[in-house]
Specification:
The protein folds into 2 domains: 202 residues, 3-Layer(aba) Sandwich (Rossmann fold), CATH 3.40.50.720; 215 residues, Rossmann fold, CATH 3.40.50. The protein starts with a strand and ends in an 8-residue tail after the last strand. By secondary structure, it is of the alpha/beta class. The protein is 44% helix and 14% strand. The strands form 4 sheets. Strands 3-2-1-4-5-8 form a 6-stranded parallel sheet, with helices on both faces. The protein has a 6-stranded parallel sheet with strand order 13-12-11-14-15-16. The relative contact order is 0.09. The structure holds nicotinamide-adenine-dinucleotide (NAD). The site of nicotinamide-adenine-dinucleotide has 26 residues, from helix 1 and helix 5.
């Protein structure tokens, strides 16, 4: 099939590359000229394992190309995926102007049947708005009175990939969700995803839109739940790792997303929770449960900084080493990263911060000022009064902690992800603090 992807970011590029890989002809659009230049030169502008190799292979097979023009993409494809940003507005609602503008441009450039597919995470009812925008903006030659003479469909196909394992997730999804309102749209989408041989959930557009928001909100609820449990564990001398293991073996609960820590971040969870709360409010329902999920998440970071303050005595003028700034491992994405907020809180207390992240340093340099950026994990610990682990990159498990101990002024570690080997570090002479592991133990 001939497919266009509008928006070539984390979701759009992965979607485009993977759809090309399974046999479709794909044209990826982006309005950022530098991004398109890089992509045309065979470079992936983000860090995502396996993506660059796969992209180059698809380009070589002539199944994937890039453009800055929606018009060109429209002319060459019958299915158009929207993988555009849907950032939060100040009131928590999703900003859908990117989606509206692209829909208008598609309408203006349509000359044959198109299926327009929402890949972005959008609030329920967005499908209807896209449909209306296209109808309103179709050239006059395709209208006769109120009648639309050019066929098109809108569908919803939310994306569930996780940054850091995005290619694998796209190729091996737990399910593909299709929100459709016509047999034709269903048939096309089933055909597109057929090679993935996965379970398909077919429903109407509104239900599909809700599936995405409800899924992300449920995952954040699990995270905040275990963080609340961790707070209790710390107070009564229990170990949240064992608690999560004991809970997670129950198949009704499952172990995933029961990792206590400094809370969720990233470009999706915080904004999707806000947007779902807002959708409830707009429709007369107070989603108080999700408000609490959000409150617990915010509290977790502030509490972590408080813990550091309690153990260091004073934060002012202390040198603090930070390992990890990406919102999760295996990505360079720092959008809404818990680590960024923690670094800023420490800076507000006048700490000096030395930072190292395996992949996110360039992005961090753009948003963090006054931080010493280090070339490796050891340099980040030099002369430090404590070390914070904020992103659980595998690399941090493999460092030589004897060297770290020697480099630090005070051998104190705060593990914001319960990632390191507590017993081993304590035996080596570190003071080690984690989350929910029984501070009194
Ligand atoms: P992103 O910011 O990485 O990518 C968006 C891209 O769209 C950017 O490259 C930007 O330059 C481009 N763009 C903006 N306006 C454009 C226009 N008018 N024409 C062409 N290109 C344009 O965002 P993302 O992380 O890929 O997220 C996209 C959507 O997918 C969001 O709704 C997000 O919530 C959702 N989503 C994201 C993830 C994730 O892990 N990142 C997972 C599932 C769903």
């Amino acid at each position: 099939m001939n497919i266009a992807i509008i928006g070539s970011g984390y979701v759009g590029l992965v979607t485009g590359v993977c759809l090309a890989h399974i046999g479709h002809h794909v044209i990826c659009v982006d309005n950022n000229p530098q991004k398109i230049k890089k992509l045309k030169g065979g470079q992936v502008p983000i860090y995502e394992p396996g993506l660059q190799e796969l992209m180059r292979a698809c380009v070589k097979k002539k199944r994937l190309k890039f453009t800055g023009s929606i018009k060109e993409a429209c002319q060459q494809s019958s299915v158009i995926f929207l993988a555009l940003p849907t950032p939060p507005k100040s009131n928590g609602d999703a900003d859908l102007t990117y989606i509206e503008n692209a829909s208008r441009e598609i309408a203006l450039n349509m000359d044959s049947y198109k299926l327009i597919v929402e890949k972005s995470t959008v609030p329920a009812q967005t499908g209807k708005k896209i449909q209306r925008t296209i109808q309103l903006n179709l050239p006059r030659k395709f209208k006769k009175g109120n009648k639309i003479l050019l066929g098109f469909d809108v569908a919803s196909n939310p994306e569930f990939l996780k940054e850091g394992s995005a290619v694998h997730d796209f190729m091996n999804p737990d399910r593909v969700v299709l929100g459709v309102e016509s047999k034709k749209a269903e048939k096309i989408l089933r055909e597109i995803y057929k090679p993935l041989k996965t379970k398909m959930v077919v429903t109407n557009i509104a239900s599909s839109e809700i599936i995405k928001h409800a899924s992300n909100s449920f995952l954040t609820t699990k995270i905040s739940f275990i963080n609340a449990v961790a707070q209790i564990c710390d107070r009564v001398g229990a170990d949240v790792l064992k608690v999560a293991e004991g809970m997670g073996l129950d198949k009704r609960i499952g172990r995933q997303f029961l990792d206590a820590g400094i809370g969720y971040g990233g470009s999706c969870f915080p904004k999707d929770v806000d947007s779902f709360i807002h959708l409830g409010e707009k429709n007369g329902y107070d989603f108080a449960l999700l408000k609490e999920v959000r409150r617990i998440n915010d509290w977790q970071r502030r509490w972590f900084v408080r813990l550091i303050e309690e153990k260091l005595w004073n934060i002012k003028d202390k040198t603090i080493g930070v390992w990890g700034i990406a919102f999760k491992p295996n990505t360079d994405d720092i959008r809404n990263a818990a680590a960024i907020e923690i670094v800023r809180m420490l800076q507000a207390e006048r700490a000096r911060v030395r930072l190292y992240d395996p992949k996110a340093m360039d992005n961090a340099r753009h948003v963090l000022k006054g931080v010493t950026f280090c070339d490796d994990p050891y340099a980040a610990t030099q002369g430090c009064d404590c070390l914070l682990l904020l992103t659980e990159w595998q690399e941090f498990k493999d460092v030589d902690f004897i060297q770290v101990h020697e480099a630090m002024r005070q051998a104190v570690i705060f593990d914001g992800r319960n990632f390191l080997d507590a017993e081993h570090l304590r035996r080596m002479g570190f003071e080690y603090f984690a989350i929910g592991r029984g501070r009194s133990v």
